[in-house]
Structure formats: C-alpha cells, structure tokens
Amino acid sequence: MRLAIAQINTTVGDFAGNSRKILSFAGQALRRQCDIVVYPELALPGYPPRDLVEKEDFIDANLNALDDTTRRLPSGITAVVGFIDRNPASTGKPLFNAVAVIRDGRRVSTHYKSLLPTYDVFDEGRYFEPAPRVLPAVVGGRRLGVTICEDVWNDKHFWRKRLYHHDPVERLGGEHVDLLINVSASPFSIGKLTLREQMLREIATELKAPVVYANLVGGDDCLIFDGASFVVDAAGNKIAQARDFDEDLVVCDTEEAAGDMRAVSGGEIESTYRALVLGTADYCRKNGFRKAVIGLSGGIDSALTACIAAAALGRHNVLGVTMPSRFSSPGSVDDSERLAHNLGIEIYRVPIRDLQAGYLRALVPLMKGRAPDVTEENLQARIRGNILMAISNKFGHLVLSTGNKSELAVGYCTMYGDMCGGLAVISDVPKLTVYQLANYVNREREIIPSSTISKPPSAELRPGQLDEDALPPYKVLDPIIRLYVEEDMKPSEIVSQGYDARTVEEVVRLIHRSEYKRQQAAPGLRVTSKAFGYGRRFPIAEKFHGGFPARKSAAARRGK
Amino acid sequence: MRLAIAQINTTVGDFAGNSRKILSFAGQALRRQCDIVVYPELALPGYPPRDLVEKEDFIDANLNALDDTTRRLPSGITAVVGFIDRNPASTGKPLFNAVAVIRDGRRVSTHYKSLLPTYDVFDEGRYFEPAPRVLPAVVGGRRLGVTICEDVWNDKHFWRKRLYHHDPVERLGGEHVDLLINVSASPFSIGKLTLREQMLREIATELKAPVVYANLVGGDDCLIFDGASFVVDAAGNKIAQARDFDEDLVVCDTEEAAGDMRAVSGGEIESTYRALVLGTADYCRKNGFRKAVIGLSGGIDSALTACIAAAALGRHNVLGVTMPSRFSSPGSVDDSERLAHNLGIEIYRVPIRDLQAGYLRALVPLMKGRAPDVTEENLQARIRGNILMAISNKFGHLVLSTGNKSELAVGYCTMYGDMCGGLAVISDVPKLTVYQLANYVNREREIIPSSTISKPPSAELRPGQLDEDALPPYKVLDPIIRLYVEEDMKPSEIVSQGYDARTVEEVVRLIHRSEYKRQQAAPGLRVTSKAFGYGRRFPIAEKFHGGFPARKSAAARRGK
Fold first, then answer.
1. Contacts of residue A538 in chain B, CB cutoff 8 Å?
2. Which residues does chain A have within 8 Å of residue B390's beta carbon, measured at their own beta carbons?
3. pLDDT at B552
4. Residue contact B389–A416, C-beta within 8 A
5. B162 contacts in chain A (CB < 8 Å)
6. Given an 8 Å threshold on Cβ–Cβ distance, is A537 in contact with B51?
7. Given B113, B286, B405, B431, which residue is catalytic?
8. Packing angle between helix A300-313 and helix A268-286, nearest 10 degrees?
9. Element (H, E) at A238
C-alpha cells in the first residue's frame, strides 16, 4: 500500500483554511500515486479547540466543512480526516473526537477516539465520549486500524501503570489489521520524540503490522506540535520520516518498506530552539501580528528572546528597547546595542530615570520615612512594562516577555513589569537551558555578546544586585525545580538526591507561594513535560506549602 | 435518627485546621445527642485541591490526617468525613474522591464518588477514578446511602439529557436505604439554591427516604461555596435548613421530621452580595492578607468594590486611592471622597498628571507626530495600576481590582492597568447587576453617592469619554453577553430574541477577540453559572470568531 502523511499546520476554527490545506495535500499525494493520505488529529477544526466545541455553531461549521471537504477531495485516493462528531445518545458527553475515512466523494466509515487524555494540558474528558466500539476501516480490501493519538498510549507491555482500563490497539489486533494508523496531535516536549518512536516500534512488532504515525505540526497558543511524523514497518524499522517543525508530505510504500526520509533536528537543544521559533512565529501569525517588541536588559534572557523572535518573524520585524535606569550597568545598554547590531534588529533607547523619580515624588506623601525595598525595584520593572505596552498600542507590535522558567517558578519576576507581554517565549525554559540555547545561537558566529553570556545574572534593580543574593545558584535551583515541578518528586526524595534540605524547602515554598503571579502570566510556550500554565492547575489559597509547616512568609522578593 | 450537618469552612491543604474543625463540630453534635454528623465534600484536604492531589505528600498528609481524626473523634457518634483515597488497581486514575464513615475510633466503611464532574470549573476526571461499586453504609442497623456531590445530579426524571450513563442514587434505591446522605461542595451561582432543592426533593420522594444535603461553605480562590445545607423528609418537605455564607451546625431528627431552621438570604441580589463579601474575606484570610487597597475612580464599580471590601475586612482595613488625571471630572474625586466618608474608610489622593506628562516626554522620540489614541488612555490606567501596586508592595495591602463582567467580556479594560490586582471582586458581575448591588448597599442609607449611581459610565481617559461611545448600552450589552457566555446560545438565536444583528455580531466578535486579556486577568469571584476564568477555556489563537467571517480587526479599544 502506498500512503502519504500530510503533516499540516492547522489553525483552530479556520475551517476554510484547514480544508484548503487538506485538499491541496490530497492533490499532491494523488500525484505521487498514493492510495491513502492521512492527516493529523482534528485536522478540520484544528487542535486544541478547547471550549469552542461547546458552541453549537462551531460543531455545525466543522460538520459542514467535513461535507464540503468530502465532496471536493479528489477521487482515487482515500483520505483519513479528523473532525468532531455529535453523540446522539441521551446519556454521556455530547461529542466524539472523530476520524472520517473518505473515498470518492463519500464517507466510507467513521472512527472515534477511545482514550481521552484528561491530565496536564489535555481536557478531552471534558468534552468527548469514548468510542463505544472499535472496528477497522476496510479500504481496497485491506483492514486499517484507525486510532487517534492517546489510543496508542496504553500498551500493557510498555507502561507499568496504565491510565485506562482497556487498550484499543489490542482490540484492533484481535481484528487482524493490515496497517495501524495513528492520527495525532502530540505536543513537543524535550525527549518525547524518542518515547513516541520506541512505543510505536513496540506496537508494530506486537501487531505484526506497519504503523503510520501522522502528527500535527505548528504552534497553538502554548502548545508546539513538532510534526516528525513517521512510518515503521511490521518489524519496527522506520521506513519514512517527516520533517520536524515544518509542514511536510511524506510518501511511503509499505510493501516495498521504503519511503521519504527527511532529516530532523540533531538534538535536544536544537529541537528546543526550533520549537520556540515555531511557537513564536505561529502565535504571531495566527493572532495577526507581524512585528514584536522586546525590552532588552543586556541580560541573556532578553537576548535569547530577541534571537528567537528574529528567527520567527524576520529581523526587520523585531524592535528592541533598552530602558536604562539609574541602577543599570553601562554594560546593559552596550550589550543590548551590540546584540541588536549583531542580529540586525532596530533598537530604541528610552531612559526611565526621570519616570522613576516622578513616581517616587508622587508617592512621597504616602511613603516618606520608609526605607527603600522591593517597592522601588518593582516600580522600575513596571515603568518598563508600561513603555513596551505603549509601543505595542501605538505601533501594533506584540510585546514578547523574556522571563525564564527558573524565575517564574520561584516568583523572581514582577507582575505588570517584566511579566508584561502577549507571549512568554522562554517561560518554560530553565535558566541553564537558556545558556545552552544562547551557545547554540552563537554556534557559527557571536550574535549574543559574550559579555552577556559571561556576566553574573542580575535584575539590576538596585546597586550591585545579583540573582544569587536572593536565590540558590542556578545549577542547584534548576534541578530542584525540575524534580519538584516536572517529576512531582517529594521534597524528601530531592534531598536524598544530594540537595541541601534547607534549600529544597525554600525553593518548594517559593514555588507554592508564587502561584498567584503565574496565574496572571502571559501564555508561555511549553517545551518541557510540565510547564506552568493551564497544564498545571494549583490553588492560590492553600496551606500545604509542599508539606512544610506553616510559617510567617518572608517578604516578597520582587512583586506582590 | 438524630443527625447533624457540620457546615464548615475548610482551607485547602490545612489538614490540622480542617481536622480541628471536624473534631470541634463533632463535639457540639454529640452534646446535642446526635447519632451522626455529616461534613462537606473532601472535608479533610479542603476543596478543590486541584493539582495538589498529584503530590504524593499531599495524599499522605490527608491519609495521616484521616487516621489521626479517626482516633480523636468522640465515641458515640458516627462521623461522615470526606478525604482522598488511593486507587490500588494497576489501571485507571490513581485516586478516589472518598468518604469515611467513622465510629468509635475506627473506619466502619469507605465510599467513593461515582460521577466525576469534568466541565466548567470542575476537573475531577483529571484525578479520580469513579467508584467501582456503590453500597450503603450500615450504622446502628440503619442503611445509609452515602453519595458525594455530583452523584445526585444525574436523575433520569429530572434531567432531559444526562452526562453519565448510570445513576448511583438509583442503585442505592435498589439497596433500600433508610436515608440518603449527600456530601457536597457545590459552588454558589445565582439561582442554584432553588435548583438543588427541587432536585433533592424529587429524589427524596422517589427513594421514599429523607435526604441530608451537607454543603461546603467558604471562598476558595474563585469559587464561593454558599453552604445552605438542608434536610428534606421522605415526602420532600424541608425539615432542617443551615445558614448560607457562614459556618453552621444544624440538627435534625428524621423520625420527628423536625430540625433547626435558619434564615437564608432573601433574594438573588442579597445572596450575590453576601457571596462576594465571603469570597473577598476568605481570599484575603486564606492568603494571609488583612488589608486591601482599591483605586477609587468616582464610578460605581470601584465604589461597590470598596463597600464589599469594607464588609469583608472591616472598614479600617480598606484604603481607597483617588488618582485624578487631567481628564478626570471634578466629580470623580468628590464622589470618591464622599464614598470614603460614608463608608468610613481611609482615602489617599495621588494625582497622576505629572507622571502622565513624564511618559509622554519619554516617548516623544518614538511617537512624535502620531495622533493620540488608545495608547495615551491606557498609560493613565497603567500609571494608576503601578501606584496601587507600589502601595501594596510597601504596606502589604492586597490590591482589589474593580472591573465588572461586561467590561471583561468585551475587553473594555486595560491590561496591567485597571486589571491589576490580586482578586477581581466583581469581575463576574454584569454592569446592570452592579447597579442593583449598589442600590442594595444603599438600602438603609446612602453609602455610595447618588451622583456615582446616576452619572453615565465613563472610563474618563479622554475628554468627554463615555462607555456608550464604544459599547452598546448596558441594557443591550448585558443580555447579549449572558446569552452568549452563560447560555452558550447561538448568535442567530440571540438575534431572534429581538437584538440587533450587527450589535450581536460586534459583541460576539469582541468577546472572542478579548480572550488574551482575560487569560492574564486576576482571579475573579464566580457568581454566575459561567464566569470567565478557569471554568471557561478558550484558545487565544482561533479564527472562529463566533462563526462570523474573518475581517481585519478594528483598532483595540483599550489595551492591547
């Protein structure tokens, strides 16, 4: 069987645009003599549509688009197209996450998703009813097992503990399928590619059938779908590979066990970088922004964000703004200007010294006699936020915020200050990874000034301030955050891995105590297995504090 | 049988505090000769614990608290206590939402929740496995049907379309129960009290058994639990009623069909007001804030917010700040001062004219020659936000934001400006309801100045600006928002109810287009059946726009 994976970049709710892509890729697949073309999950409505599916009009538009696409697909090829179906039963959730198998102008069969991920960023149990039954599609005498994303993630040989009680792949195996298709929207996270491949190789060998994995590509709000679709033969050998982080059409002949093999990113840092570029590009494009503005502090976070933005939007569409205060080091302006020069982006300079003095004057009647503290530090960050937002309002640039995951975890950031922005580009990137990405950006020539990379991290909000005055060194902080947030490890276990008990307690307390800041953060691109944002849902008012006894909270470090 | 409902106000993760309340109320119930005392849902861990339940330590602490509470509960009374249990099976979700029936120092039986709400603000399918079976508890020879919240919300006689395939109450009915207990955490929304009562009266008559409804009371982040627990006899007659919006212990004798009957709020406006006061009080208390600061504009939203804050925290703990700009009417300061005087709160005045001029000077090199627009309007709002945050940072007051639901729906608000704050007190209150609440506040004497109530709504960010220049009149806007957001009605249906088609389209487009602002809004107290916030999950990047064809977006009105 000769098949194509149409790895397209859909947009939620863009039925006309998604349908055009489906038709165009079907045409290409037909020209390459394919029997079947397979698209990613929910190709017609886009993924994830979230609560839009609760709108009757949205479901109607998706069904109308399916009818229209069915009529307009070329004859002579079978298309496997994701859509949302209604559940006519009087009990249960009202919708199905569905796939239509379409041939010669009509829908041959319809298949529903059995396993509905309801964890992390996934809310499918909120909307969808699981498939009442699982049957293969029969196309040209072949039996195709059609599964949707999570359906292949419950293999009893692969997982020690399973979230679901049955395995649709096992059921399809009992029906003797010639080929297993998986229609996916599996978001990128560091290391996930390998996991997917291992799992599907194992399934192929169990089923003794080739497996076609068609994944979505593109950024949708916080999520980045990496594509990297592939086909493995019945022995688990990869026989086709699509590009990652880009649209692609790959063709594969399962009888000949041969297909298109594209190169993919060379490692975790390269793939993280490309994920961030795609996520930024798509967030801007899908929201109608061509240009972005970034506050440049001279530090590594804003420098990296500017590089990602320039790669995503083109250097002419990125504006840097340096906003020195009386505490800024001379290096902060020089380094920002050097970065802008190296990168080829425009840079403005808006000193904030007078505004800072103006606020202090205005607040004198209230605050006279009080020692300077975090208040004055936050004011500077907020003045800068206001200036960036004014530029955004006047010229239509999207503000990109520049905070990293380490800061956001422990609340070392100012609400309405450096947290301002439409998209938080690196808010799921730990500080140590920021350094690795900066070195990756500089792999051929110096773009981020070496002085930016080598200087000790500082918020420069008071004289001589360094991050390490308030926080543990990042080589200690980052792994503690990873173990607590991504691995959900107990603090006592983290200590038993060799970290200082008091430091672990302090970091865990800070993570809990900063939840209120994160709930007002800009959407951030997700690149780890657990990002802050809607995939991590914590209460603000809670007295658990990671299991440590209650105590009077220390003064907030930055922000309130 | 003589039973008590212990309607307690728990705090998430405060195992020691929640346990103390459980023990104290058990003592009171025993002194009043009760056989049974029933607590709200998840009484030990607090509700909703959200992703805290994914922390092993949290589950351990809850199980330890259960053991400890079991040992310390007085003998001679049966306690029905909510907790979280582990699911030992190798498939399925790892936890159960559970209830322990405890008597004389040991757990007599354990009961699990069958129906797990996974919609709106509820995410229980994310964590919990449904009960594998449903059996009555046997206490002193009586058979008690123990259900948890949603378990009673799937009655086939009451609902036309049901979310779940089976009905645990029906199953318990088949086991002949003498009494049905429902352990709940049902959040307040306008009109819900009546619905609950109707539903449980019907269930009582079907079962031919009394029903005990023990509801949580208190504010937990966005949610306000109203309490108002009650008991109905086998004929559906109410025989006990607890207070709303306050802790309570009510006692009831099911044989004598008589019990404590407390007064509850007299109508929707009174109950909404009391909900907002409780929500504000508990958000502050559970997060360790004693004092609040509010920007007073002279308008009705900030005036109402100040009144709620004074009722919640005491007037000495509320600080008003008036921040006149060059566009503020003289009335805006006078009215704010009169409000502060009537309410007995302190008020500061921080003029922002100079700061406004300072920003414009700083931005001249970038913006010269550009006509004033929304940029300059937003700057004023953001200067005010900065000042409030500076006061918060310096003195530890929580900033309460004052925007209403109508503004938030259509994005008529400034990010990092008037949207600044730790809690958005009235962000789920439509503007017309704000007026009703203001009149309620003034029911005995004028607290909110009549000039504040009678003046046409204005943001006062440019000369002569009125809300109605940019938006439809609130008497048109509010119902359109309600029908689209709360009722999920199609735009075409809204038009068929008599609203102008162009106005409906404009409002629906604005609702979709403003999603990015709402995702950075402060948590807001929920008082309607559908609040913005984590119960309403929309994508930002989407091209559905409520089903209207794509078009170039109009200039943002306020904020970006």
1. 50-52
2. 359, 363, 367, 375, 378-379
3. 55
4. yes
5. 90-92
6. yes
7. B113
8. 60
9. strand A238-241
Question: Residue A138's pLDDT is what?
Answer: 95
Among the partner-chain residues A287, A361, A559, the one whose CB lies closest to the CB of B541 is A287
Q: Please indicate, yes or no, if residue B127 is contained in any of the structural domains.
A: yes
Looking at every residue in chain A, the average pLDDT score rounds to 95
Q: Are residues A415 and A452 in the same domain?
A: yes
Q: Name the active-site residue from A21, A34, A124, A149.
A: A149
Regarding whether B66 and B7 lie in a shared domain, the answer is: yes
**Does B63 contact chain A (CB < 8 Å)?**
no
- Chain B touched by A168 (CB under 8 Å): no
**pLDDT reported for residue A71:** 98
The residue with tokens 């990874």 is A433
Partner-chain contact B386 A391, CB within 8 Å: no
Please provide the distance, in angstroms rounded to a whole number, between the alpha carbons at the two ends of chain B: 61
| Enclosing domain of residue B233 | 2-257
Cβ atoms of B425 and B305 closer than 8 Å: yes
Q: Across residues A129-136, what is the average pLDDT?
A: 96
Chain A contact set for B14 (CB, 8 A):
542-544
**Where does a domain end: A205, A239, A260?**
A260
For residue B560, name the pLDDT band (cuts at 50, 70, 90). Answer: very low
The per-residue pLDDT for A196 is: 93
pLDDT band at A560 (very low <50, low <70, confident <90, very high): very low
Q: Where do we find the tokens 């009961």?
A: B111
pLDDT computed for residue B234 by the predictor: 96
Tens digit of pLDDT for each residue in B91-131? 999 999 999 999 999 999 999 999 999 999 999 999 999 99
Rg for chain A, CA atoms, rounded: 26
Q: Which residues does chain A have within 8 Å of residue B394's beta carbon, measured at their own beta carbons?
A: 366-367, 370, 373, 375
Rounded to the nearest 5 percent, the helix, strand and coil shares of chain B are 40, 20, 40
| Chain B residues inside the 8 Å CB shell of A390 | 359, 363, 367, 375, 378-379
Q: Is the ipTM of this complex over 0.90?
A: yes
Reading the block at residue A543, the tokens are 């007295």
Domain end (from B407, B436, B467):
B467
Distance CA A284, CA A427 (A): 17
Closest Cα to residue A298, out of A157, A449, A122, A159?
Answer: A449
**C-alpha dihedral over B142, B147, B151, B154, to 10 degrees?**
20
Q: Is A486 a catalytic residue?
A: no
Q: Is residue A556 scored above 70 in pLDDT? A: no
Provide mean pLDDT across the span A354-370: 94
Same domain? For B245 and B277 the reply is no
In this prediction, residue A554 carries a pLDDT of 42
Whole-angstrom distance, CA of residue B48 vs CA of residue B116? 13
Any CB–CB contact under 8 A between B512 and chain A? no
Q: What pLDDT, on the 0 to 100 scale, is given for residue A552?
A: 55
> Do B302 and B242 share a structural domain?
no
Q: Are residues B301 and B252 in the same domain?
A: no
Mapped onto helix, strand or coil, the DSSP state of residue B276 is helix
Nearest CB neighbour to A61, from listed B90, B378, B547 = B547
What CATH number did the domain enclosing A177 receive? 3.60.110.10
The answer to whether residue A41 is catalytic is yes
B546 in reach of chain A (CB within 8 A): yes
* pLDDT at residue B329 is higher than 90: no
pLDDT at A63 over 60: yes
pLDDT over threshold 90, residue B328: no
Per the structure, the count of domains in chain A is: 2
> Is the CB of residue B366 less than 8 Å from the CB of residue B543?
no
CB spacing of A416 vs B164 below 8 angstroms:
no
- For residue A45, pLDDT over 60 is answered with yes
Confidence of residue A161 (pLDDT cuts 50, 70, 90): confident
pLDDT in tens, A244-290: 999 999 999 999 999 999 999 989 999 999 999 999 999 999 999 99
CB contact A87 to B (< 8 Å): no
Whether residue B246 is found in the same domain as residue B281: no
Minimal C-alpha gap between B375 and chain A (Å): 5
The yes-or-no answer on residue B307 being catalytic is: no
Q: Choose, from B34, B124, B129, B149, the residue flagged as catalytic.
A: B149
Same domain? A253 vs A344: no
Which two three-digit tokens encode residue B296?
């007073």
